[in-house]
Amino acid sequence: MLVEVPRWLLVTSLIFAPWAYGSTRPWAIQGLSILMGYICLLWLAECLIRRRQPALSLIAVITSLGLIFQGWWMALNAHSYFDADLQALLPKAPLVSGAPGSADGPASASAMFFFTGLLGMFLFCCDLSQHPVWRKRIWMTVALTGLSLAAFGILQKIGGEAVLSLIWEPEKRDLTNNFATFRYRGNAGAYLNLIFPMMAGLAFLSFQR
Questions:
Q1: For residue 61, how far is the Cα from the chain centroid?
Q2: What is the pLDDT of residue 172?
Q3: Is residue 91 within a helix (H) or strand (E), and if so which, with residue range?
Q4: By CB neighbour count within 10 A (0-12 exposed, 13-18 middle, 19+ buried), where does 117 fall?
Q5: 77-99 burial string, b = 16+ CB within 10 Å, else e?
Q6: Which contiguous run of DSSP H or E holds residue 90?
Q7: 90 forms bridges with which residues in the sheet?
Q8: Distance (Å, rounded) from C-alpha 125 to C-alpha 197?
Q9: How far apart are CA 114 and CA 116, in angstroms?
């Protein structure tokens, strides 16, 4: 279970993230953070219990840990916090007064939980990519998820308001800017730009066979 569960959770997160409005809603961000947290914890537990050293590049480990340390230091050494009632930043005592720190401690800490999960997922994927079977599964999952979003976006453009009403609230429907589950077509385009090379690679392999 420790070996297989985090791997299938990764596949789940690759499908969930774009379909959950591009993981831009608060509930989607929280859901993705929980998924990433479980993946990283189970992966680390598996490595410890099996006494296995992950197949990771030293550069990837050093840079990831450096970013995590820098981000958490800024969050923990915050010089102020945001008061929602006053709509203002209020000062607070930092750990080290002369050192740099975040302007909004709680918001920075919340963001760092998410970014730590992302970097943990990056390292997990570096380790998992050493297995050809899982490398192909990840490749297929990303390509098919992008294909499904592209197809749904085209269906929206053809069907108009009737298809938009399936997922969008009335105040957020915009035929000129929505595409699939993305409120802004430019973000959808950026996502699909990452997907098309993977789809092209799979098509090339299929034609070779």
A1: 19
A2: 80
A3: strand 88-91
A4: buried
A5: bbbbbeeeeeeeeeeeebeeeee
A6: strand 88-91
A7: 81
A8: 19
A9: 5
Reference 117, options 38, 56, 37, 5; nearest CA is 37
Q: What is the pTM of this model?
A: 0.84
Tokens 């453009």 found at: 157
Closest CA to 94 of 110, 109, 78: 78
Question: Is 85 a residue whose pLDDT tops 90?
Answer: no
- Residue 9 Cα to chain centre, angstroms: 13
The total number of residues written for the chain in this structure: 209
CA 138 from chain centre, in angstroms, equals 14
**Contact yes or no for 164/173 (Cβ under 8 A):** yes
Q: What is the pLDDT of residues 4-23, one digit of tens each?
A: 999 999 999 999 999 999 99
12 phi-psi bin (left φ>0, alpha ψ -120 to 50, beta other): alpha
